[in-house]
Design a protein that fits this description.
The chain is α+β, with helices and mostly antiparallel strands.
Length: about 700
């Protein structure tokens, strides 16, 4: 049997991916969703190239559990790497089936397809996909067909106009713009502390408010449905003023990861332990790094629309995994999966698991109780408090150098709560309201994706040649705040720690940081991006830094099998920290959408810079301390550095996801640049002026 791309093997029927509709319309269905990253445009371009049609002939159907292939989550930088490869194979097989039909009609000889028309070089007439649609059966398994001949070459730039921008620029694309007949508006009441349970509120007072048609109470879940959104908001404000809460547990006194992590009992796994004699070390070094909880902080709060028809529910959601969400909704609502339909609708993008899934259940519960379609939105305070956060982490490194300055021993230990608590992952429902209704659906036990993908241990194994290695992952239970997937998962902190430690070891060995890395690499593509980044930035090994001006480098291969990325950052440190320039070089194999790829990487640069310098989610004994943008500063537009990006293109190589590869290298490059500028190193993110000042004072 043919070895299919993984996502195609899970969904082998060709008509699940492609249908020929007319006139001049080919419908493409993908399980990947558009989050603002341009993935759907890239997949459409892949389909157009393999089918031999114009992009204008391609209709990308919104991802829908009733009709789209099940491809899990749009996550992990896998949209093109996995979703694109499956689409390419399926479309190539469709093209070959139509070519066979054309040959049967037109006669033997070479058949080519241009703009959707199949012709023979010796005859003028041709047949289009639409001419032959009734004669070619696509309701067949890809596995029963021979491997297709994939079309080579780069994709014409004319195919790469972003399909999602027109709607966004005209105010019609987003889920918040949706309207349905009889649609009402819902809001949900949640407390100021993550361990609070609702005891009571003035139901009669809320129900009597203008516009309110339903007050919903199920366990600790409380919400309202009103004719207008402002009426629902007003009702929740009244409910909040009259609510009584029971606190089931307290938060730790401090949000410092070094403190509260030590109080938790981990499940520890040493997954790499090299055998061999004790190395001949002449110098040993030890350092500890950390990051706090960080928020998705998407510009638009989470939103969903739900509509019940008898015992079936349709939910429109900007979830990154509509098929897993469907299963979680069905389980919570005590329905068969066939009774739940989830349709993707675009929202404000985020990388990972924010409140999009949670608000989908909120909307479904409210719509069921009110018996009308309901749009439910979270407030900014909801989003910054109750949405899952990127997990806090602590990384401890120990290393040893021999007399030649080579690393002969490397020990890496990482502590972190789960980075993956999405609906459909592990044993739990993993939806917020599911934990609040009666009886509740408790979250599943802490779990992570298997390596090399990993969660807290993602990118914990460096690509460098390091002598005797030991890598240990201490998986913690859920921490003080709910954590789940955020762009790059554990790679952000692990690579920050590894690449900072490499600079520290280089300094102890008296070797230039770029040269030190190259001495420990045996991977030509890794060496190439480091050399190219150094060249692009005009790296000078003689530059000793100091006086508040510095430069630093960071490198990794994302998940050790994705894109290679190296970056040099230059900084200026006064009473503020300013990133002046970032020089980045990417190797992501074959590039499908060059402009989109650059946008992905440079967006990752900006987000990682914001995490590294500014972002943290604190709390107090009273509960959440982040309720508005004032409580959660992010990088301002005026603080964005100049970004210079080069791509090492490798036509014919596998396409590698690029959306998350910059997070760790950028964090490390910034940290290394600050250390180069000041001669003192801060190891706990965010790298605030106060922490850098403390590092200087500790010298």
């Amino acid at each position: 049997m043919t070895q299919l791309p993984a996502n195609l093997a899970l969904n082998p029927r060709l008509n699940r991916w492609v249908s020929i509709d007319g006139p001049d319309v080919i419908t493409i269905r993908t399980g990947k969703v558009e989050l603002g990253q341009g993935a759907v445009t890239a997949i459409a371009a892949i389909a157009a190239r393999e089918l031999g049609v114009d992009l204008a002939d391609i209709h990308m159907q919104p991802t829908d559990t009733d009709s789209s292939p099940e491809e899990g989550y749009t996550a992990g930088s896998f949209s093109v790497e996995h979703g694109g490869s499956a689409m390419r194979w399926a479309c190539a097989q469709v093209r070959e089936l139509f070519a066979q039909r054309a040959q049967a009609v037109l006669g033997e000889g070479a058949i080519d397809v241009v703009a959707g028309v199949f012709t023979r070089s010796t005859r003028n007439e041709g047949l289009s996909y639409w001419d032959m649609a009734a004669d070619v059966d696509l309701n067949r398994s890809s596995a029963d067909l021979p491997p297709p001949q994939l079309r080579g070459g780069t994709i014409d730039a004319g195919l790469l106009r972003r399909l999602d921008l027109a709607g966004k620029l005209t105010g019609a694309a987003f889920i918040q713009d949706m309207t349905l007949p009889r649609m009402h508006y819902g809001r949900v009441l949640r407390g100021a502390h993550p361990r609070d349970r609702l005891v009571s509120f003035d139901n009669d007072k809320v129900a009597a408010l203008s516009g309110v048609i339903a007050v919903v109470l199920d366990g600790s879940f409380m919400g309202v449905v009103a004719r207008r959104d402002e009426q629902a908001l007003r009702a929740i404000e009244v409910a909040a003023r009259t609510a009584q809460w029971r606190r089931e547990a307290e938060l730790p006194e401090t949000a410092d990861p070094h403190d509260w992590i030590a109080a938790l009992t981990p499940r520890s796994t040493t997954f790499l332990a090299d055998d061999g004699p004790e190395p001949m070390a002449v110098l040993r070094h030890h350092a500890v790094y950390s990051r706090p909880f960080i928020a998705h902080a998407s510009i638009g709060p989470s939103c969903a629309v739900a509509m019940w028809e008898a015992d079936h529910v349709t939910v429109w959601s900007h979830s990154q995994g509509i098929h897993p969400l469907r299963g979680a909704l069905a389980r919570t609502l005590h329905l068969d999966k066939q009774q739940v339909r989830v349709i993707h609708a675009q929202g404000a993008g985020c990388y990972g698991h924010n409140g999009a899934d949670d608000v989908a259940l909120d909307a479904a519960l409210l719509a069921r109780a009110a018996k009308v379609p309901v749009m439910c939105q979270w407030t900014r305070a909801d989003e910054l408090s109750w949405s899952p956060f990127g997990a806090a982490m602590r990384v401890e490194l120990q290393g040893a150098l021999d007399a030649a300055g080579q690393i002969v021993e490397w020990q890496h230990a990482v502590w972190s709560p789960p980075h993956l608590a999405r609906p459909g992952f592990g044993d739990g429902v993993n939806l917020l309201a599911a934990q609040q209704i009666d009886p509740p659906h408790p979250p599943g036990p802490p779990n992570e994706a298997p390596r090399p993908y990993g969660g807290g241990d993602r990118n914990a194994v460096p690509l460098y040649r390091l002598g005797k290695r030991g890598i240990t992952h201490h998986l913690l239970p859920q921490g003080p705040l709910r954590s789940s997937a955020l762009r790059s998962l554990g790679a952000h902190c692990n690579v920050f720690a590894i690449e900072s430690f490499m600079d520290e070891l280089a300094a102890l060995a008296g070797i230039d940081p770029v040269e030190f890395r190259l001495r420990h690499l045996e991977e030509p593509r890794a060496e190439a991006v480091i050399r190219a980044a150094a060249k692009l930035s005009k790296w000078d090994p003689a530059d000793r830094g100091g006086e508040g001006v510095g430069r630093g480098i960071g490198f990794s291969r994302y998940k050790n099998h994705g894109a290679y990325y190296a970056a040099v950052a230059t900084v200026e440190v006064t009473d503020v920290i300013t990133i002046k320039d970032v020089y980045g070089v990417l190797d992501a194999g074959e590039i499908i959408h060059r402009d989109g790829t650059i946008n992905q990487v440079e967006g990752g640069v900006i987000q990682a810079a914001s995490w590294t310098l500014k972002e943290q989610v604190p709390w107090t004994r009273d509960g959440f301390a982040v309720r508005s943008w004032d409580d959660y500063p992010i990088l301002n537009f005026s603080e964005i550095p100049r970004i210079h990006t080069e791509i090492i293109e490798r036509p014919g190589e596998a396409a590698l996801g690029a959306g998350e590869c910059a997070a760790g290298p950028i964090a490390a490059a910034i940290g290394n640049a600050i250390a180069h500028a000041l001669g003192a190193r801060a190891r706990d993110m965010p790298l605030t002026f106060e922490r850098i000042e403390a590092a200087i004072n500790a010298l």
